[in-house]
Amino acid sequence: MPKQRIKPIEYDQSASIALAACKAYLQEAEQYIQGDGKSLPNPTPLLTARFPSSSLLEAKAKDGVDGLDWPTIAAKIVDRKAKSDRFFDPWYFAVVLLLELPGGRIVLDRSNRQQYFYAAYAGSNAKENFYLRRIIVNTPVWADTQEGKHRDGAHYDYRRPTLHWICKDVVRTLGKKTRTVSSNRDGAIRFAVKLFKQQLAAHRLSPRSRLPGIELTAPDYERLLSIALYIADAMHEKYLVAKTRNG
Fold it and tell me: Does the reported pTM lie above 0.90?
């Protein structure tokens, strides 16, 4: 089978604006984590921030969605059949946007019986993908990600408070099937960086070059993704503690 040719992405002004929106949000989030910001970072610019390959459609900021008193971004994903909103923490939604930067996209992977649609991170070939809830929860390769008891069908809900991981040995003990090992967050980051390097090659640039229109190198992009995930995890912990205290 011939090797798939990667098409170069033209990063226009809207892509530059999307990157700036993500960076500004992360900066505000960092200030909140450090105690310098009294209010949560403003998610409004993220609602329309998109990179050229994005499969995310309209998004809205909401509160108190599906019984969870939590700031939420409800976003639609391009799909021929599934049309319902998917729910995200704003801080992890910023990560999702950045994952799409180098030609990645969010797809809805079907369950074996076509009953459920699980959001996953993929490139132009969706055969290799990484489930978003594993990325968000940072589920180990030897564990599975499950929804909380108050949620019925977390294939719609990717907010971290609604999800948890459970050891695969426990899953098997309960009589359920599971893979021997599964993908993890680090693998998704490596995949995203691989897509970035493929874009450099598609633009006929060296691996150390900056991607035109984005002005990032591959190490810059990997660092940005890692920082975004670190901040998202810290935002989750900080806001969870604040909600518990104010309870």
Answer: yes
